[in-house]
């Protein structure tokens, strides 16, 4: 009978190996998707524009209403907190700079990533998982249709286009939300607020937020598909892995965000 | 049986699930235009054998040759090309739930041919007629009954007029009338198109109705292989148990039984 320490080491080791295994699988999915995107047409296995567009509609256009609400809320919230904090130093007139930088560099990309992970990443996991337990993935394989080309490449492209686009949109909405509150609270015109925002932001700030959103889009897709592909044990398994995919995607987004900010900002 | 050409050849196939050996030294040859029924109880290894024939699993030892080509020696592109000559009707249908029945059947055409839309639609309607589902093309898979799902899956499997057709439990879970209709359909497909057909089933009536030859699997080995008459006359006890639906008396080991109860083994 092995001791408790040995058993702990055994468990940790197994978890580590399976985590590495999943990361390897994710890398394989990414590599194969890029491969099919590059040479699919020559090999008569094209990644179809129609399915990319369908995915993009769902991931992007479908998320617009709820994203607008969330972005607006974040903008107002940041303005409220910003003014409260800066008032302690009598510096509330500088609040716009803080709001503009935090929203464009951080919060818009983050809230968009979180929303898309919850809405579309989980849907992807559920879809792939359901297809797996219904043998639909086997059916694709035996039909001579590569499942990665058919199921992974389209959402990957759609996410890569739509998540940065949504982030841009949430920049606009959250800045507008913050502006409404700031102009009322500090008694300045909305036009003056917009002027301050434009002064505060540089192109590199915009690039910072958008690059992160592009990374998030890849993470959300891969985490969704990996979890979907690992589904076992029927409908309950699909539910479990869908939840797991959301948790993993959010963790991946936050950790990546921190590392990216640390590496780029100093 | 329309000739002696071999369409499917399995040699010395071993397969494992984890550490457990589920197939041991399987040798099987299916002639062109033949209907081979693979029969066996649950856990006999018949689904694993089917997955090997479909190239979904890689054998631990031995080889699978389809239409004269060794699956393990082919490049991924060659396998994709070979798959255009194979049709598979999965047990649960495996229809894509986001597509209508007609779109499901059209998918292989869209992916593998350059026909124009109109021609594809006509082919789809033809195949729907073949499986007696004319007029149901617009339905979603979730709106189909069990028998309709199996027939739609069959229509999708034959849409490219494959030379090899595999059916996994085509009549499982269906009432006797529908199940018999599906058997007739399989016979018609072979007669009309000369397909080589492999059917995996545990349904005795269906097996004896459609099979040219039957292969009985038990615990990962072939215990009997032959024509219907040969299987009926088989001297092997396990085959006779299967045919007569007799349960097998397990030899009772009291010590082992007690150990199992106490959770010690």
List the helices and strands and how they pair.
The complex is a heterodimer of chains A (266) and B (265).
Chain A: H1 4-39, H2 49-59, H3 64-87, H4 95-133, H5 136-142, H6 147-185, H7 190-200, H8 203-229, H9 234-265
Chain B: E1 6-17, E2 20-31, E3 35-39, H1 46-53, E4 61-66, E5 69-70, H2 76-83, E6 86-89, H3 101-112, H4 117-130, H5 146-157, E7 164-168, H6 176-193, E8 196-201, H7 204-210, E9 213-218, E10 221-227, H8 228-232, H9 237-243, H10 254-261
Parallel strand pairs in B: 3-8, 3-9, 6-7, 7-8
Antiparallel strand pairs in B: 1-2, 1-4, 4-5, 9-10
Helix pairs in contact in B: 3-4, 3-5
What would your notes on this structure say?
The complex is a heterodimer of chains A (266) and B (265). Chain A is mainly α and 266 residues long. Chain A has one domain (49-265). Chain A is 85% helix and 0% strand. The radius of gyration of chain A is 22 Å and the shape is globular. Chain B has 2 domains: 6-85 and 162-261, P-loop containing nucleotide triphosphate hydrolases (Rossmann fold), CATH 3.40.50; 95-161, no CATH class. Chain B is 37% helix and 25% strand. Chain B is built from 10 helices and 10 strands. Chain B has helices at residues 46-53, 76-83, 101-112, 117-130, 146-157, 176-193, 204-210, 228-232, 237-243, 254-261; strands at 6-17, 20-31, 35-39, 61-66, 69-70, 86-89, 164-168, 196-201, 213-218, 221-227. Chain B has a 6-stranded mixed sheet with strand order 6-7-8-3-9-10, sandwiched between helices. In chain B, strands 2-1-4-5 form a 4-stranded antiparallel sheet, with helices on one face. In chain B, strand 4 (61-66) and strand 5 (69-70) form a beta hairpin. In chain B, helix 3 crosses helix 4. The relative contact order of chain B is 0.16. The model of chain B has no long low-confidence stretch (mean pLDDT 87). Classes of the chains: A mainly alpha (266), B alpha/beta (265).
